[in-house]
Amino acid sequence: MVTKDAALYARFRKRAAEISGTSPEPKKKARLSSPETSAAQVGLSRPAAQVGPSRPAQEVPSTDHRGSGSTGTSAMLACLAPISQRPGRHPLEQRRSASEQRRSDSEPGSSQGAPRPPPPPPSPSRPSLPCPPEADPPPERWPYLPSWEVFEGDSALDDPAVARQVFHVALLPADQAKIRSQSYNSFMDGVYCSVVRRLHELETLMHIASDYRDRGRRYQRGQEKAEKKLRQAEARLGEVELLRQELLARVEAVEGELRSRTEELEEEKGAHALARSELHAAESRLSKAQSALAACEQEAEGAKLRAAELEGCVERAQEEA
């Protein structure tokens, strides 16, 4: 009986095979006589125009028996053909040496599982340092150069072939081999763990989002209070500005009145000075008049004395006559 998880896993394997460019083999043909037959079938099932990174073709027998179906065993999907056997490759990549092929096959996660080749002999021009016999030399690593046919203007959202090319570049060959070599239980355990991690991440993100929403609400309330206080302060500032303008108008009025009073005072001072000058002139005229009056009085006294003398002379003249 096929369970829901088994069907989901089978659909995932079928989808991975479609993205990789191979057609999934039926369960009745899962048991092949030799790896060469599986590689030949995989090479024939691949389209000629498909270009991308692939793995050596080898049928991996399933070690995990699930369910009680007609066959009783679940066969693993065959790996893709090696890069050197893919059609449409660049001639330079097809002329790789056998040593480089063995090094690439001995990388961690390779589907062939070939033994690690011995380290290359030291160069005579560069003498190597003696290493301890118990320490193994580190494995030599080679850069992975994916090959794909994607041109400017292609869209992975509309073209499935471009999406498969992008998936080939995003998923490394070691990861592809690791996914194909996993058993059903380990695959589902990884899916469950990934789902739980994603749930925890989503819950954490939800808590963070709610926290930020609460902070945003608090900040918004504080901003509203600050804006309200700012509006009140602006209103008070407007009132103070009006009062200042009124006071300035009053000050200007008082200054105008003060200037007018000052001008009047200056005029009064001028009039007072003029009156004092007239007073001084009148006093001088008065003194002149007084001196003239004294001179007239003296002349009058002299005239009286002469008149008295004339009268005495007349009386004497009359007496003598």
Q: How would you sum up this structure, described in words?
A:
The protein has 321 residues and is an all-alpha fold. It has a domain at 4-114 and 143-182. It has seven helices and no strands. The chain starts with a helix and ends with a helix. The relative contact order is 0.07. Residues 115-136 have a biased composition (Pro residues). Residues 216-320 form a coiled coil. Residues 90-106 have a biased composition (Basic and acidic residues). Residues 13-140 are annotated as: Disordered.
Q: Could you give the order of the helices and strands? A: HHHHHHH
Percent of residues in β-strands: under 5%
Give the beta-strand count.
0
Shape: rod-shaped
Name the helicity range.
55-70%
Low-confidence runs (pLDDT<50, min 5 residues)?
A: 27-117, 122-130
Helix-strand makeup class: mainly alpha
Assembly state = single chain
| Major β-sheet annotation | none
The radius of gyration is 63 Å
Please give a handful of descriptors for the protein shown.
7 helices; mainly alpha; coiled coil; 0% strand; Leucine zipper putative tumor suppressor 2-like; 321 residues
What would you say about this model in short?
Residues 115-136 have a biased composition (Pro residues). The chain has 321 residues and is mostly helical.
List the helices and strands and how they pair.
Layout: H1 4-20, H2 35-45, H3 91-94, H4 98-105, H5 160-170, H6 173-181, H7 184-320
